[in-house]
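Human: I would love a firmer grasp of how sequence relates to backbone shape in proteins. Take your time, and here it is.
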Amino acid sequence: PRQTDSAMTTPCWPSPSAHHGLECLPSAFIIGFPKCATSDLWERLKRHPEVLTSSSKETRFLTQGEFSSVSPKEGWLGRHTALRAWTIQFDGVAGHLVSLMNNSETRAAANRMVTVEATPLTAWWSSQRPDQGLGLAGPDVFPPRLLQHLVPKAKLIAVVGEPGNRMYSDYFFLSSTGVTESSTEAAAKNPSHFHDLVESQATLFTQCLRKHIAELSQQPPQCFPTCRLEDDNGALGAWRSVVSDAFRSVAENQTSSGGVRR
């Protein structure tokens, strides 16, 4: 982005082509994790008088192809990717801030407003590959690393849950074709099937970790996409390594983590 207004908590910059003459990005990101009550946190934050949000909870700009068999569905983020495709989802934020800034009595309030986005796969979704045309090589780039450059002062929030409960929630929420919607799909799910699924997944995941153990010490998040296992509608993952890497790339005062009990 261009030079942002340093007085504002939400990073914004003038843009004649934007609807309100202003483009904005979030100042806080809920970066994970799926089925760990990120929606609940999102709804609670929205009620705060000094919090603004994107047009939808999950903008998925940094996780393009999330629901596609090919990741990312539209190709990796790169020079062809227009930032405006993301900021347009914050046009409502820009409009609200402009209205506050145009009133001398509320200008200070505009500076305090925090903008939040909450795509729960942001912590680990591979979003960019090194530009081979420039002779660059290395592992895929993960969203927290991109955010470090796009929004250097952004706050990163990670919510984690007890692994068994999280996976059980994931199991009932997802089907082999997406989100569980029909009663027939729901009826096919039961504790016995879940137990068998977990045993199978745990065995395969352990084997994968052993195979890629070197990656855990060199590039912590790399093992997670490699070893994330899905069979029907259950998934295991190495959240700890992903959170560690995400928080390692930013200052301590920019991060926050929390746990959820159900």
Summary: The CA atoms of residues 183 and 257 lie 35 Å apart.
